[in-house]
Amino acid sequence: LNLVKGLHKPVYLTAPENNSDTLYIVEQHGVVQSFINGEVASSPLL
Predict the structure, then answer these.
(1) Helix (H, G, I), strand (E, B) or coil at 42
(2) Burial of 34 from C-beta contacts in 10 A (0-12 / 13-18 / 19+)
(3) Rounded CA gap, 41 and 15, in Å?
(4) Distance of CA 35 to the CA centre of its chain
(5) In what helix (H) or strand (E) does residue 12 lie, and over which residues does it extend?
(6) Residue pLDDT, tens place only, 1-46
(7) Residue ranges of the domains in the chain?
(8) Of the four listed, 12, 16, 18, 23, which is most buried by Cβ atoms within 10 Å?
């Protein structure tokens, strides 16, 4: 089941307390992606 395209082996998901529009997704190889307003950001956060 793919809910979000553009991720590579996501292993963890978290969100900031005061922002319901943003999620942070950690991929297996250590990259942190931002998911903002329903879209994966064009470049990784970390």
Answers:
(1) coil
(2) middle
(3) 15
(4) 4
(5) strand 10-14
(6) 667 888 999 999 999 999 889 999 999 999 999 999 989 999 999 8
(7) 1-46
(8) 23
